[in-house]
Structures are given as structure tokens and as C-alpha cells.
Amino acid sequence: MAPSGFGLRHFFVIRHSSFVIVLIRYSLSVIANSFVIFLLITLRAISELTQLRGPLFLAIGVFDGVHLGHQAVISTSARHAHSADGTPVVVTFDPHPAKVLRPQKAPHLLTATQHKIALIRNLGVAHLLVIEFSSEFAATPPEQFISQLVAYSQALREICVGHEWSFGKNRAGNLDLLKKLGASYNFNVVGIPPVMVDGEVVSSTSIRVAVETGDLNRAAKMLGREYTILGTVMHGEAVGNKIGYPTANLSAHSEQFPPNGVYFAEAWIQGVQHHGVVNLGFRPTVSRGESQRTLEIHLLDFDRDIYGEDVEIRFLQYLRPERKFESVDALARQIEADVKQARELCAA
Q1: Which of 146, 238, 273, 330 has the greatest count of CB atoms below 10 A from its CB?
Q2: Distance CA 323, CA 266 (A)
């Protein structure tokens, strides 16, 4: 678990076939801009639980956003495991179950898997089980799912979940059934009550609404951190280069965007902080009629090839709405004004 007094700020990830090294930046008045290296072992099948030393303490959930409610589940499980010299394991699912069960109504994700992995690791967990959520898995009866966890654990001591967690075929499993199964298999069950912020229950749905409507302060309160979007830089049409303001075009892993517009933003690339101007929307001045929203950032005083790299974007201040200009030259003049405003905000 992170040392007392530290707070998760930013991270980047080095991937391997069976583990992930997460480099996490902490902020503290005395120790600043330092990195702590953690090794996170990622399992991809329930049967791989046999590799872990028991007793096992499992925190189970989708955990999209890893918000304060999720953090309460995960940190409680980790704390119980550490006090009993056990092994804490977070069990989650990929893709989001709604993507499989009701794809037409599936929610926009708050955190992509790699983003979620880094956030979970900071809560004191070294082991993550990511279960592929398929139609076949969705048909598993709740009792069978729990019996599999028991069978492959070297002594399953505890399962910790949110108070409204449901599982198994037709979501037939709930906290009451889990407690009955716990009594049968001799493991403890902990149901975490809802976490409240400003009189409202913290939930992924509420955070999505807050982000979508641009209330990023409310989203941050529920998340316990600023809302950020993680994306990979991809090749675009190089329109920015042609007008003197090159941009990094991001393929966002997280799907929930704030409102369209131009923002002063912070970008983290391989653990290094940069500032820039983000345009989020449909680029009406240069668009060829595409219907997909784009996320691009012009980084201040930056000149390096970052194609294929991950960038974490934090929206610091809304500057103006996106609009169509009468010409590309007019767009360039407006971008010049946007960049000037961003520089002033950097200096403030």
C-alpha cells in the first residue's frame, strides 16, 4: 500500500506477457517527482489462483473508474489480507459485462483495463485476476462460479464485494447468497456499504453523468482523484502540422468524454508532465464529415515523435466551445490565441 501521506498522481506502464510493472508518481511536500516501482502479477484464468500462496482474500467487482466505493472494497480486502499474512487478489472482468449482455446499452467506460490496473495496484494489491467476460461465462450459475474460486484457491479466506454486487447467470447471485456459500465453504464474506459524497451515493453512473456534463470537480470528488483519459497516439491527417500547430491524435481507451470544446490540459507521457491545448469534438473546420469525436492535443514546447505511446490527459480548464471557422487561416489565428491563453495559465 502507498506510504501514508502519499497520493496517487500519475503513472506509466511497462508490459510483459505475465506481469505489469507500474511506475507511479507520488506527490509529497518533501519528496516530489519521484517514482516507486511496483510489480503487479496479472492472472487470466481462475485456475491460475493455484499459483498464489494462501490464504487468499478476494475483492471482486467490475471496478470501472476505481472510484471511492471501489477503493473501499479493494483496500478493505487488502488490509484484511495483510493483517492475516494472506494474499490479496482483485478479481475483475474484461470486457465490461454490459458490453456482452446488452451491447446496445453498454455504458461508456471511465477507465480502460491498463488504466484500471495501475489504479488498483496503488491500493496495496500485487495480484490481479482478469476474467474474460464472454457469453459462455455469463451463463455460469452463481454457485458454480464461487465453487471454482474455492477449488483453485489455496485456502480461500474471504470475499469482499460492494453491497449491491450481483453475479452469475441472470445476475441471480447477490450478497445474501454469497454469505450462504461462504458458510458452506468456510470463507468470510464482507459487503461494503455505499460511500457517500455530498449526500450522494458514489457510483460509476453518477461519475459518467458528471464527466459528460462537464462537472469535473464533482467527478473528482467521487473518484478520489482528477478524472483523466488515457489514450494512445495514432497517425492523423497532419492538419495541425500544416498550419503550424502539430497535434497528437489520441485513440482513447476510456470512452467517457467531457463536453466538446477546447481545453487547457495537462499531459503525462512516460511519467513526464507537459501542458497543452486539447480540442475535443468533430473538427468542423477541417472535417470531411466524420461522425466520430476526436481527441487531439497540441503540446507546448514539445518536439518529439510519440506515435504509439500512451498519453494521460487531465482537463484543467475549459477555454471555449468548438466551432466552425470560415477558413483554415481563421482557425490558425484562433489556435494562436488559445495557445497564448494556455501559456498565461501555465505561468499563473
Answers
A1: 146
A2: 22
β-pairing, 248-252 vs 310-320, is unpaired
Q: At what angle do helices 142-152 and 175-185 cross, to 10 degrees?
A: 40
Tell me how far apart the alpha carbons of residues 31 and 273 are, in angstroms, rounded to a whole number: 17
> What is the pLDDT of the chain when averaged over all its residues?
86
Nearest residue to 331 (alpha-carbon basis) of 279, 295, 268, 264: 279
Domains of the chain in sequence order: 7-197 (3.40.50.620), 227-347 (2.40.30.30)
pLDDT at 38 over 80: no
- The two beta strands, 56-60 and 87-94, are parallel
Rounded distance, CA 35 to CA 270, Å?
Answer: 11
Q: What is the DSSP string of 4-40?
A: TT-EEEEEEEEE-SSEEEEEEEEE-SSSEEEEEEEEE
Residues designated catalytic: 296
Return the HEC string of 152-208: HCCCEEEEEEECCCCECHHHCECHHHHHHHHHHHCCEEEEECCCEECCEECCHHHHH
**pLDDT for res 61:** 96
- Does an H or E element contain 298, and which? strand 294-299
pLDDT class for 22, splitting at 50, 70, 90? very low
**Which amino acid makes up residue 258?**
P
Mean pLDDT of all residues in 11-17: 42
Q: How far is CA 273 from CA 34, 216, 249, 337, in A?
A: 13, 20, 18, 22
pLDDT top residue among 177 and 125: 177
pTM of the model: 0.83
